[in-house]
Design a protein that fits this description.
327 residues; 6 helices; 32% strand; globular
Length: 327
């Protein structure tokens, strides 16, 4: 299917962006770090059979009470019906004690994944707070040509951008999850793909050598300003000319020896119907819903070969070992 034809395709089942997945070395370091950035541990999935645990963290609105125990059925039910976007921290057991292991955090030559971001009222005050916590910076607010924004490293070396909120933002939180950035080869293919998944272009910025496209999920207003949103946006970065280079290809974060960023994920009402529509775009499925041991979820490829997970809204039986609360 051409990009023009896919422009009109809409994946059924009200797709909503649900999470961004990053592999981490040691959750005992990563979880407290993200808690200090305003995230709450919402849920976890323990898979001893795969020697893997998944931790889902998100920013809740100031004053919102979250009293569910991660790993319980109640937390699972809440997670898979959430309209908010989370980060999924994937821990492969044993990496925390392996001195040679380090996730590939992106931002090397031809890497696709760039960073996640938080929005704050005062980048300078937040950066000063992070300095006092002993965090290291890729860029402090007054360094480089772009003043007033910062990049702090997480425990694995992933970049977290610190961005000033818009003046009209009605957000009481000190910090909120605001962005996932991916580099794309050709916006004329990538943007229709994500529009088919319900996303909308909220704003775009064009420079001499690159362009930025900021996409919101289907559940944000069409006229929303990315800097005023509580929900994160997907920032697609296009370096001009890559679309004309047949040999150019980004690393997606799942290649052997370069594994770090894993995927972004969407909730849909019916995974099978959604996959039937996604296949029409011609980029293929990495995992069909009934492939493998985890039935009822799928992974599609986007135009750059990034993995896009498709999960049923309300969830499915993932085969994890759940936490059972005692009365």
């Amino acid at each position: 299917m051409s990009s023009q034809a896919s422009e009109t395709l809409i994946v059924p089942g009200r797709p909503t962006w649900h999470h961004t997945m990053l592999r981490v070395k040691d959750p005992s370091k990563s979880i407290p770090f993200y808690e200090s950035l305003g995230f709450t541990l919402l849920d976890k999935f323990d898979f001893p059979q795969y020697k893997m645990t998944l931790y889902f963290m998100g920013t809740l609105r100031e004053g919102e009470v979250y009293d569910l125990t991660p790993g319980t059925k109640a937390a699972h039910d809440k997670l898979w019906t959430s309209e908010n976007v989370a980060i999924e921290l994937t821990h492969n057991h044993g990496t925390e004690s392996d001195d040679s292991y380090k996730p590939h955090t992106g931002n090397e030559e031809k890497d696709g994944f760039g960073h996640i971001a938080i929005n704050v009222n005062d980048v300078y005050a937040t950066s000063e707070k992070f300095e006092k916590l002993g965090y290291t910076f890729k860029k402090k607010p007054d360094e480089g040509r772009m003043k007033g924004l910062a990049f702090v490293y997480d425990p694995d070396g992933y970049w977290v951008e610190v961005v000033k909120r818009g003046e009209d933002a009605d957000i009481k939180n000190e910090m909120n999850f605001s962005q996932t950035m991916l580099r794309i080869k050709d916006p004329s293919k990538s943007i229709p793909f994500y529009k088919a998944l319900g996303m909308k272009v909220l704003s775009e910025r064009h420079f001499d050598s690159f362009s930025l496209y900021f996409l919101g999920s289907s559940n944000v207003p069409d006229d929303a300003s990315p800097k005023n949103l509580f929900q994160p946006v997907l920032e697609l970065t296009h370096n001009h000319g890559t679309e004309k280079d047949d040999s150019f290809k980004h690393f997606t974060g799942n290649e052997e020896g370069r594994q770090g960023f894993g995927h972004i994920a969407f909730l849909v009402d019916d995974v099978y119907q959604a996959c039937d529509a996604i296949e029409q775009m011609g980029y293929g499925l990495k995992k069909k819903p009934d492939d493998g041991s985890m039935k009822g979820l799928a992974f599609a490829y986007d135009p750059d070969n990034y993995a896009v997970e498709i999960i049923r809204r309300t969830g499915t039986d993932f085969g994890d070992v759940q936490v059972h609360e005692t009365s």
